[in-house]
Amino acid sequence: MASVQRQHIEHIFQLGEGLDAPQLPAQATIRRSWLRCLNEYQLDPTQPRPARVVPQQTLIEHRESVDELLHVARAGVDQLYGQIAQLGYVLLLTDHRGITVEFRGNPNQDQQLRKAGLYLGADWDERFAGTCAVGTCLHDRQAIICHRQEHFDATHISLTCTAAPIADPQGNVMAVLDISALQSPTQHESQNFSLSLVTLYARMIEDAYFLQRYRDCLMVRLDTSREFVHVNGRGLIAIEENGQVIAANAVGRELISAHQQRWPPWSAHHAPMLSELFECEIADVLSINSATNDQLRAFRARASNAIYFISLLEPRRPRIAPLGKPASSLPTALERLGADDPAIRKVQKLAERLCNEASVNVLISGETGTGKEVVARALHDSGNRAKGPFIAVNCAAIPEALIESELFGYEPGAFTGGRAKGMRGLIPQAHGGTLFLDEIGDMPLALQTRLLRVLAEREVMPLGANKPEKVDIRVITATHRHIDTMIAQGEFREDLYYRLNGAQLRLPPLRERADKLYVIRQVFSDVVSERGASSAPRLRADAISALLAYAWPGNIRQLKNALAFALATAESDEITVYDLPEQCLSQRITRTPAITATESEAADSHLVTRLQQHHWNISAVARELGVSRPTVYRQMQRQGIVPPNKA
Question: Which UniProt keywords are given for this protein, alphabetically ordered (predicted)?
Fold first, then answer.
């Protein structure tokens, strides 16, 4: 090993032993990363790791997961690389797991770049690669230079790398933009301009993604300089028509944060109104384009008293489809599965190709409650079997002793306790249509063998029968379990798995979907329809904000239950944040001490007096106390308070 590498390894051990020396990195972020590599990740600096490049199929999956971002980012990537290529730099764009999903480099250096890990598909996660610009940027969520000997791995000490995070509209890091070079000057200061350049382009890509993501919403663009608002306004805030904030870019989030730090008791538990951030009325903002010459207005920020110049970006007009063609080529049932979410879009496109391919069995995977049966029904309704039956079977809900007879049916007298006339099984009932087997991972092994025979021979033998019955079925299955693990443990037949998994549709959890607002409104509409109400309360913006902020461990099923609860208990013509179930507010409430203490405070307050003042309007009392309606109901129950109309 070269002497410079040995010295580098000695410096790492010196830091690990608590020693200090002039040769150690000056940056505190680099020192902390070295210690993480030693103590948390247990990386051995004496055992340099070769660059890891993921297989092609894995790379495809990583690229597909950030497909929307890649579409937006490519122009910025090409533009930045055009500025740095002549200086010997390469460009990497990684996803939030450190996998390089976009790359620009000199083809003449292909072999050297691949060996160094500066290549498409390279893994720069700090847990594997050690201290590096991408991995440490992901960990610390901030732009960073990792120059030569600041790298942890001794094989990387000739590299210089500079990276900046790219955040989604909620402030979560979704990608990292990095420029690197195989060789560079020894001085750390030589990379300062690289840091400014990468940070600038990361923000440009971030804002372009924001504009794409909220292109159908009202937006305001703002800056402290009137001259730059239209061409390069730094702040972006998406709003409802009433002025409620939906989302904001980095500058907008800083403005909101400053507002909430100044007035935490009443603003931290709901998305603010634009009129709370600025000294303005929403009508002043909505009239900017029609009432001003330069389509700008100046407003004062309440938190800082700074003057901001604001322009209004109105939603794009829907594109008029050519005569005779629908606006969307997707069948209606598939189109309703989602809106602008990359993972759902992939499901829709693949499902469209599969809906008429009855010979291809489909396996739908995803967490519990993500809507697997809804997708199965959409596949059925969109294909040439739509007029046939759709038979859904939950393998986890039928007792193991009955599942065989339920699926295959039985002849009269086949067993004690059966129906006198026998029973036609669910599989024969699906003849000419679709059989949907939900939670296929819970099917007993013995029954898996019989199902495999049905799929292979396309016939069913009911219990007690002398001859089989021919069936023409399309089979769709679903599971939330890891079938690969079950196969390895002998709990699921491998041959059956391959027979069922002709094509796989993976549903994302609700918390990861980019079209959560669409899902909320769609589910709310469905719940209203199921209740058969001629009119329904309106979902107010604060309720929508709370629903968007919640993690939804139970996914769409839990969302549906929450909206059904709100509809059943709402006392006015609009559903507010206080009408939602308590668990939907927990993640927001715990951030503000004034809110977490209110439940106990409500018990000590003159609750009866407040109820009487508000004419026993529970929602009004909840708003005054700053708690949810269920909290007020609990306090009434504990204190034995009964409304006059129920006494």
Answer: ATP-binding, DNA-binding, Nucleotide-binding, Transcription, Transcription regulation
